[in-house]
Amino acid sequence: xxxxxxxxxxxxxxxxxxxxxxxxxxxxxxxxxxxxxxxxxxxxxxxxxxxxxxxxxxxxxxxxxxxxxxxxxxxxxxxxxxxxxxxxxxxxxxxxxxxxxxxxxxxxxxxxxxxxxxxxxxxxxxxxxxxxxxxxxxxxxxxxxxxxxxxxxxxxxxxxxxxxxxxxxxxxxxxxxxxxxxxxxxxxxxxxxxxxxxxxxxxxxxxxxxxxxxxxxxxxxxxxxxxxxxxxxxxxxxxxxxxxxxxxxxxxxxxxxxxxxxxxxxxxxxxxxxxxxxxxxxxxxxxxxxxxxxxxxxxxxxxxxxxxxxxxxxxxxxxxxxxxxxxxxxxxxxxxxxxxxxxxxxxxxxxxxxxxxxxxxxxxxxxxxxxxxxxxxxxxxx
Amino acid sequence: xxxxxxxxxxxxxxxxxxxxxxxxxxxxxxxxxxxxxxxxxxxxxxxxxxxxxxxxxxxxxxxxxxxxxxxxxxxxxxxxxxxxxxxxxxxxxxxxxxxxxxxxxxxxxxxxxxxxxxxxxxxxxxxxxxxxxxxxxxxxxxxxxxxxxxxxxxxxxxxxxxxxxxxxxxxxxxxxxxxxxxxxxxxxxxxxxxxxxxxxxxxxxxxxxxxxxxxxxxxxxxxxxxxxxxxxxxxxxxxxxxxxxxxxxxxxxxxxxxxxxxxxxxxxxxxxxxxxxxxxxxxxxxxxxxxxxxxxxxxxxxxxxxxxxxxxxxxxxxxx
Lengths: 382, 320
Known about the structure:
Chain A is an all-alpha fold and about 375 residues long. Chain A is built from 14 helices and no strands.
């Protein structure tokens, strides 16, 4: 199949997956409206759908709302990082699901540095984020080393670590770190010099973290496709035995991929904290890790496509929360939409017949071309 | 005194739902199906089990519905994983997404339609008489100590331990079990002698769905009164670890599940004495990691010993 055709196929396939998810969403929205008659319910459904699909960027009168758009961009930051983390780990065929606990730990450690470290402005946020990233990288050493040296499932271990991290942070917050003057459990406020400067001053909390996120997309893409470590990571994902017999140190690369993943997830947590919060108050797992997995699947584990996928998910998320304030549709609809898109995107055999047709057509065309060439060649000989 | 009869009683009670999910993982892994969606299946069936128990006014209906919902969800997983070839791990993650956030959506929408107000949990709906009943075993209950520990459990608790034996019988004493195991060990070989790999995988994932469905109903209709968000709290994941620690065998997995039950019961006991529960709650998860490590080291050591024994034997027979 030529390049153009396979591009067409992926676009059609992605669109079909999204369309199916939207159909499911429409049915669920319809089920959750409680208008009197059928017509009223349909009107409600259409109104809700409008909020979901158009609301995040456009105002009711049709003009673009910069504030909403910035909100969407701002909420991309954590899921770009968890998405990148998942890309790196899944590329190496390491089903490490610790980005969820990782982003929480990164946020927590960064927050602590931002509150307590006596560092000058300019250096403080950088150090805080780096320390957060290093903490998560160290955490990921546990499942990574156990996988590489003992063959213990990194998936189960990383899932368990998520819970351990969450409870330990809750314990530390409750016992030592909470600001007791506040009604809810939260830390003391960050030092002002730790906060990231905002990109746009409209209250949307779109910070310079966004620029850092895009920079890391580029860096991760370069790392994965332009360095030998990136090559090694992708190679053990494709065929671990082949990589081993061709002399790659598989254990080292297994560890590298997960530590890098942890670093990225931790960095996402840190930037999210310093960009959008003024005190640490996450007392349960934030869910960005799971969204990150969806993002990586949508991006086909290619870092370059992560921002696009993250924008899409952030857009839908914003749409769902707008919808829940506009109508009687609970915002958790996002989880169902996400799961449906996810399932169809990852389905290898989804639309396989259509791909088959495209392959056959390409082959036929090639054959004809060759015949024509052969005929022309014969003609010239005569 | 920590290790009272109460302690061991609650250990068995805590073990039951983990054990049900662990058996689901055991059957799945035997057939080569790594189902990490057990967590989500438990959440979904816990929700529908408690709702239908409330509607029909019967705990038995609730348990049955939970079981059927478990099978239904796993059929759906099977369709994606086996027919559309979505990676089975990703399929599991998707089910877990629906299990954590999607169930909250569903409970709000459903209760809004039936009760007139959107509830975020079903705890107000499940009353004492909708709870799965417990059973005081005649004669046994009069024996001191043993009676206090073993009698008076929920009937699903007894069923879960009985199911350990039944799972063993299924896997090792029936033709279907042989087929299931052959599909897990070498699908090509199984297919070449006429075993339908697809059918066996569907059977395995559905049995797993039924078992974790039961586990879900236990959670929402006995362990806690009613469904609430994230109530399964990683038990489906712990089950995966218990399966691995038990070397994939029903009996070993049961022992591993009991270890988790022990760890969690201990945690509850310790936190009732004033230790912060956040410090005790991670114990079962830490025990899981430790358990997996110990298991892996022991397994390696055993393999090495076998190899060296075999090598020695080879050498001595060669010398003759």
